[in-house]
């Protein structure tokens, strides 16, 4: 490796995630249009906007009584960069989702790795179903950062060594850990996103408590912020009805 390539291959460490809304076709009027065609036939968007209180009430009714299909007539595409272990959980959500993730077969993977930030609770107490997370001591935080960074450096050096020897990328990547950052495009509709948020975020208005891993919750919170801006009436109805997807 040249000095320049060696410099570019130095590992870097992150405690955050990236979530960007890259394109969308999503608004509350999509829900109204889909719902009212059942009873009133085709209507123009101008007609749907004339009575905002009625529109708010209809969306709340659909959410409350779990008439879900009107919430599917929209689309949001997000660019997400997060540790691979986040994507392992993400890909359990299949209905209403489409994914395209970067490939370690076709490109050299970059050395960006996850290390928990100072606000990440590190210690699990209790047993599954009854456990909680607490901050952890300064010593535990120090050893976590040190050991992770050392492990990441060793793994990426092994990866680079195999690539330099001519080993195929799809073979060499086997030594890389799940703390490596990957990226993907994820496309969903509001109904599928609500299912995701119901499981992957913790919220005081949730009728069914959820206890997500913090790193995927960070992704969910950023996705929810974008969605709430696009579909404020739908988002408000979701919260008002216990954050249970219709």
From TrEMBL:
- E.C. code: 2.1.1.148
Could you give a single Gene Ontology term from the biological process aspect?
dTTP biosynthetic process
Entry binding sites for FAD: 69, 92-94, 101, 189-191, 195
Pfam families referenced in this protein's UniProt entry, alphabetically: Thy1
Q: Per the record, what are the reactions this protein catalyses?
A: dUMP + (6R)-5,10-methylene-5,6,7,8-tetrahydrofolate + NADPH + H(+) = dTMP + (6S)-5,6,7,8-tetrahydrofolate + NADP(+)
Where dUMP is bound, by residue?
Answer: 89-92, 101-105, 173, 200
This protein's UniProt keywords:
FAD, Flavoprotein, Methyltransferase, NADP, Nucleotide biosynthesis, Transferase
Catalytic site positions? 200
Statement: the UniProt record of this protein carries the keyword Flavoprotein: yes
Single GO term (MF): NADPH binding
Matching PROSITE patterns: THYX
Specify the pathway.
Answer: Pyrimidine metabolism; dTTP biosynthesis
* Keyword Flavoprotein found: yes
Co-factor requirement: FAD
State how the cofactor is bound.
Binds 4 FAD per tetramer. Each FAD binding site is formed by three monomers.
Tell me, in a sentence or two, what this protein's role is: Catalyzes the reductive methylation of 2'-deoxyuridine-5'-monophosphate (dUMP) to 2'-deoxythymidine-5'-monophosphate (dTMP) while utilizing 5,10-methylenetetrahydrofolate (mTHF) as the methyl donor, and NADPH and FADH(2) as the reductant.
Family in the record: Belongs to the thymidylate synthase ThyX family.
Classification via PANTHER family: FLAVIN-DEPENDENT THYMIDYLATE SYNTHASE (PTHR34934)
Assembly: Homotetramer.
Q: What is this protein called?
A: Flavin-dependent thymidylate synthase
Q: Which gene encodes it?
A: thyX
